[in-house]
Design brief:
Length: 340
């Protein structure tokens, strides 16, 4: 079973049994890939399409392929892009699902898709790619051994790159789900030497947490603490005024662990910029980049312009927090409090 993206003209594909057409609700032809398919298949395709009674957005209908080298054409109607809050993702996902279901019913094992909706219908390619590739992988997960080849035939290089990127992410396991309960045990084992406090909805004051949610906190000196939690369906790692979120996918979770280990082993420090007692920005950096010169360069790269102007007017402190294993605490280097 292969899932891939190639560059080419979908009407010239001779290694698939079916190609998909990105049509409109009338199914009576149009521009873009629809026009090219009708032209290459010949007028008998339009005759058959006239008998189909159109097609709704997200659904699919099948015809013969006439003069094309494949056996079938599956016509689907993608959503028009209206900004992204009008069920575009759901509908695009449904297009792929409908096409694959229909193909399976006809015993089709090799199929080529165009980049549905990303031409005349205006769906941004960097949004359509993950919806499309995700829909195909979901379908294949639910219907193993149903296809030998599913491919996107992309007309241009950029479209090809976008599908290739998403397919590579799926192949690398990026979207494999991790089980937050199993990961809780793993995190607890990693942090057990540092007196972690664990909050769940069984703990007073944390009733708002969902059943599987948890927050593992290691108190350090002062206000600073290191924490990792699983709340609202994502992991969050926080330290020294900095925090970031990670999706519960394998690749993302591994990034989270890598950063957490970097903090525990003092290879990674959290940086916080304060001006007049007000927080202006936080990030993490490698321990050997905690020099005044490097931090000022980073601050200018990362911080919002307005905040940089403010720090210029009011002076600022850049604090670097390191996790200190021996003391189970944070120490802070106050680097600068002058107008630079
Ligand atoms: N082979 C592969 N891909 C192609 C080809 C080809 N020969 N020709 C164009 N593309 P679009 P949509 C790519 O506009 O956004 C029609 O008028 C193109 O570069 O064909 O779903 C229908 O009748 C783009 O990446 O489809 C509908 O009214 C992708 O195919 C409307 O357009 C899709 O672009 C559907 O719009």
């Amino acid at each position: 079973m292969e899932i891939r993206a190639i560059q080419g003209d979908i009407t010239k594909q001779n290694d698939v049994e079916a190609i998909v057409n990105a049509a409109n609700e009338s199914l009576l032809g149009g521009g873009g890939v629809d026009g090219v398919i009708h032209y290459a298949a010949g007028p008998d395709l339009l005759k058959e399409c006239r008998t189909l009674g159109g097609c709704k957005i997200g659904e699919a209908k099948i015809t013969g392929a006439y003069n094309l080298p494949c056996n079938f054409i599956i016509h689907t109607v993608g959503p028009r892009w209206h900004g992204g809050n009008n069920k575009e993702g759901e509908l695009l996902n449904h297009c792929y699902k409908s096409c694959l279901e229909l193909a399976m019913q006809h015993g089709i094992r090799t199929i080529a898709f165009p980049s549905i909706s990303t031409g005349a219908f205006g769906y941004p390619i960097d949004q359509a790619n993950w919806v499309a590739v995700g829909a195909v992988y979901d379908f294949v997960d639910n219907n193993p051994d149903s296809f030998d080849l599913i491919e996107w035939v992309c007309f241009d290089k950029n479209t090809l790159k976008q599908y290739e990127k998403e397919i590579a992410l799926h192949k690398s396991g990026f979207y494999e789900d991790v089980d937050p309960i199993v990961k809780k045990e793993e995190l607890m084992a990693l942090l057990s030497a540092y007196n972690p406090e664990v909050h769940t909805n069984n703990v007073d004051g944390f009733d708002e947490l969902e059943d599987d949610d948890y927050s593992i906190i290691i108190k350090c000196d002062g206000d600073e603490y290191l924490y990792v939690d699983y709340v609202d369906g994502e992991f969050t790692l926080g330290f020294g005024g900095w925090h970031t979120h990670y999706n519960p996918y394998r690749k993302d979770y591994e990034d989270c662990l890598r950063t957490l280990n970097g903090i525990l082993e003092n290879r990674t420090a959290a940086v916080k910029v304060m001006s007049n007692g007000e927080w202006c920005g936080s990030w993490i950096t490698s321990a050997d980049k905690c020099t005044k010169k490097d931090l000022i360069i980073e601050a200018r790269r990362i911080m919002h312009r307005e905040l940089i102007e403010k720090t210029k007017r009011n002076g600022y402190q850049i604090e670097c927090s390191f996790f200190d294993k021996s003391k189970n605490s944070v120490f802070t280097i106050d680097l600068d409090s002058s107008n630079e």
